[in-house]
Each structure stands twice: as C-alpha cells, then as structure tokens.
Amino acid sequence: MLAISVPQRDYAAALIASGWMLSSPAPELADPIDVFRAASQGTYLRAVTSNRINTGAFTWLQAGPGELRVLVADKVLPVARYKAVFELDSAVESSHSVLPVPGFLAQLAGASESWAERMAAPPLDLVLVGTAKWLREDLAACIGKVGDPKDVPCPLSNYVLPVVKGAATWSTQVVSAPKLADEPHLVEQHQAAILDGYGAIKYLNDIPAPIVVCVIDRSVADESAAETIMEARSANSRPVGLKDELYWQPPGGVEALAFTVAL
Predict the structure, then answer these.
(1) What DSSP state is assigned to residue 67?
(2) Where are the alpha helices (H) located in 114-154, listed in sequence order?
(3) N or C: fewer beta carbons within 10 Å in the chain?
C-alpha cells in the first residue's frame, strides 16, 4: 500500500491514475485483417482507425472494388483504415467516438507509439474511489507541455478512460465511496485501487485489490484518514522503500510512505 499526503487533493488521484495507465505494457494484438477473418457475425469488436473508434458487432467482411471492406458497429470502412482491432468478451451497443489524442504525457512515457493498440484494448485493472463528481472533474483537467506552442493540452481522461455510458473505449471504474458499503463488488477484480480522501480511505480494510494508493488531503483538518492508514501499517506490515524499491522520489510538498500488509 502507498499513502500520499498532498497539500490539497486537486488532481492528485487523476494524475496517479494517469501514471498507472501509461506505465502499463502495450497490448499485443493480431493484425486487423486477421481479427476480422476470425470473427463470426455478431462478434463484438472495438476497432480503431487513425482518428476514430468504432465499437460494436461485426457483420461482414467482403471484397469491394479493389479493396477489402468491413462492416463493424454499423460502419462500413476499408479494412486498411483500421490500425488496431480487439475482440470484446461481452455484448455492447454500437458506439463511436473520436480517437483521444495521446498528448504530452503519452509521448513522454513512450505510450504514443502504441496508442491505437492501447485504445483498442486498454487495461481493466484500476478503480478510482472517492467523490465521483470531483474525480470526474479532475479527469477533465487538461495537461500539456509548458513552453511548447505546438503542444495542445489534453484531458487526463484520455489516459484514464473512465467508464461512462456510450463510450467507445473504456478502462477505469470511478466509484462513489458511499456505494462501497452496499456494493463491495464494485472494487473486486481490480489489480489497483486509488482511494481519494477519507470518505474512500475509511473502506481501506475492505478493498481486496493487491495494490492500494491512498491520497490524503492535508488541507482538511481531520486526522481520521491518517489514523486509518497508520493502523493498517501497524498490523503485520513490512515497510517498502520509496527510493530503493519503488524508484520514486516524491516531489516537494508531498509526503509518502509505502508498506505491505497481509491479505
């Protein structure tokens, strides 16, 4: 578990989530034509072109006048237009969206080189827990490269890909902390959870994820979150060195500690 104490909660959880997503390995996908040839009618696919994402049922693949064409998600396009295609494991309604731009952070992390594949098959291993409205507002914040007139800032949601109705691609569940009391299954089957503020941190002992990051807002005059974390630390835990084991040096104004706990 990693606990991070920040001067104020703004964007901390969204930035950590972005870092988690960008550090994930790029998926290895078959060539689009091979996916289309293997698909049967009614197979659900997410298909990415250079500027669009089409998600929905595969209908047919046929030769046109000089080029192969495919009908996916009610859209007919030449197969050559598609850069990455991924088969989904459940039924979805047809949805379409503009391809999110990779932006500065993806270029910095080297993720822009595999951007189409990442948008076609993003990881489903992260959950954000806190005040859902605030978290979604934070994910709408834009980030870019200061001093670069050619850089166009993009929202953090381009990296985190929150699960929203009608999205053509999605990755991260954003869960309102109070829902955990009645619906604990919302955070099951995730590799990592980010708990933003005491409203989420108080459920720390009920989070089954192997990796948990707690974000403590120091602008709030309440030590409850810190007390919950220190109780977890004192219960059969092992300290984890930030520099030697996690290879991370917290920036100025940020305090952090990490430790393992018995599951």
Answers:
(1) S
(2) 115-120, 132-139
(3) C
| Alpha-carbon 28 to chain mean position | 18
Distance CA 73, CA 95 (A): 7
CA 32 to chain centre: 24
Taking a C-beta distance cutoff of 8 angstroms, is the pair 258, 16 a contact? no
Which residues lie closer than 8 Å to 55 by C-beta, 6 or more apart?
A: 44, 45, 46, 47, 73, 88, 92, 94, 95, 96, 168, 169
* Joined tokens for residue 120: 């076609």
Q: For residue 211, what are the β-bridge partners?
A: 192
Q: Quick one: pLDDT at residue 253?
A: 84
Which residue is it, tokens 């520099």?
A: 243
d(CA 34, CA 52): 20
Please write the tens of the pLDDT for every residue from 6-43.
887 679 999 999 999 999 999 999 999 999 999 999 99
State both tokens at 262: 């018995």
Q: Are 123 and 97 in contact (CB under 8 A)?
A: no
Helices (DSSP H) in 115-166: which residue ranges? 115-120, 132-139, 157-160
